[in-house]
Write a structure and sequence with these properties.
Elements: H1 2-24, H2 28-37, H3 41-56, H4 66-83, H5 88-98, H6 103-106, H7 111-140, H8 151-177, H9 186-199, H10 213-216, H11 226-232, H12 238-269
Helix pairs in contact: 1-7, 2-7, 3-4, 4-8, 4-11, 5-8, 8-11, 8-12
Length: 275
C-alpha cells in the first residue's frame, strides 16, 4: 500500500513538473530573448570595476584584485541565477487576493510543493537557454579565474548553489504568503528585493562592508550570491566551509518552517466566496 501511494505521488509530481516546464516553453522566443538580455550588463560591470580600480590606483580592494573582482561578479551572478525567484512572491499574493488559492484547498495539491516544482521547471528551462551564454562568458573571462578548486571545495560550491535555490524560494514564498494578512505586498516586496540585492553580495563583495559584515553574517541573504562565489575563490577556508554550509542548511530548515506556519495560519483566516 505504501509503495503504491509513493509511486502515485511521484507520478503526480512528475506530471506537475512536466506541465510547468511546458508552460515555461510556450513562448520560447520571448523566454530566450529575456534570458539572453540578462547577460548584457556583464560587460558594463566589468568596465565599471576596471574604472574603479584605475581611479583608486590600488591593485587590491578588501583583498580582491581586479581579476578576483571579475571572477567574483560572474560567480555571484551564477548564484543569483539560482536563488532569484522573479514573480514568485507577487504571484502568490495575487492568487490569495483574487481567490485562486482555493484550488489548493479543494484539490489534493500542496501549494508549497506545487510552486517549488514550478520553480524547478523554470530553472531547467532557464539553464537550457543560458548554458551556452554562461559558457561563452566564463570562457572569455577564464583568465580572471583561479585554478580549479579541490574536489571537496567543488562539492561545497555545488551544494551552496542548491541550497541558495531552495533558500531563495522559501524566502520569496514567505513574502508572498504575507498576502493572507496584507492584500497588497508590493511595497514590502520592493523593500525585500532592495535588501536582498544589497546584502546578498550581488552588488559588491560583502568583505567591502568591513566590521558591518559581522552583522550581515547573521542574516540568510549572504548565502544567495556571496557565499557560493566566496567558496570558489577560496575566501572561505576548508575549516569554515562545512560549518557555513550547516548554518545555511539551518536557515533553510527555519524558512521551510516559517513558510509552512504562514500557510497553515493563513488558510485558517482565509475566506473565499463564489467561483
Amino acid at each position: 500500500m505504501y509503495t503504491v501511494a509513493l509511486h502515485t505521488r511521484i507520478a503526480c509530481w512528475w506530471m506537475i513538473f512536466r506541465i510547468a516546464l511546458e508552460e515555461r516553453l510556450t513562448y520560447r522566443g520571448d523566454f530566450a530573448l529575456g534570458t539572453l538580455m540578462r547577460f548584457l550588463p556583464v560587460v558594463t560591470q566589468i568596465f565599471l570595476w576596471w574604472a574603479v580600480y584605475e581611479s583608486v590606483g590600488s591593485g587590491d580592494l578588501a583583498g580582491y584584485t581586479f581579476p578576483d573582482m571579475v571572477a567574483y561578479y560572474l560567480l555571484s551572478m551564477l548564484g543569483r541565477a539560482f536563488s532569484s525567484m522573479p514573480g514568485l512572491a507577487s504571484t502568490v499574493a495575487k492568487q490569495i487576493r483574487e481567490g485562486e488559492i482555493k484550488k489548493y484547498i479543494v484539490q489534493p495539491i500542496d501549494l508549497v510543493g506545487f510552486m517549488l516544482l514550478g520553480r524547478v521547471a523554470h530553472k531547467v528551462a532557464y539553464y537550457a537557454v543560458a548554458t551556452l551564454p554562461f559558457a561563452a562568458v566564463f570562457f572569455l573571462c577564464g583568465r580572471y579565474f583561479p585554478e580549479w578548486p579541490e574536489p571537496g571545495v567543488m562539492v561545497g560550491f555545488v551544494l551552496s548553489l542548491i541550497f541558495a535555490f531552495l533558500l531563495g524560494y522559501f524566502l520569496d514564498l514567505c513574502i508572498g504568503l504575507i498576502g493572507f494578512w496584507f492584500l497588497e505586498v508590493s511595497s514590502l516586496l520592493f523593500f525585500y528585493m532592495l535588501l536582498n540585492f544589497f546584502l546578498s553580495g550581488h552588488m559588491f563583495p560583502l568583505d567591502f562592508l568591513g566590521e558591518w559584515k559581522t552583522i550581515v553574517d547573521y542574516l540568510p541573504f549572504k548565502y544567495l550570491a556571496y557565499f557560493p562565489a566566496a567558496i570558489y575563490l577560496g575566501k572561505i577556508g576548508p575549516d569554515q566551509l562545512w560549518t557555513q554550509l550547516a548554518i545555511e542548511a539551518g536557515w533553510l530548515v527555519v524558512m521551510i518552517g516559517v513558510a509552512r506556519l504562514l500557510y497553515i495560519r493563513g488558510l485558517k483566516r482565509y475566506s473565499g466566496f463564489g467561483g
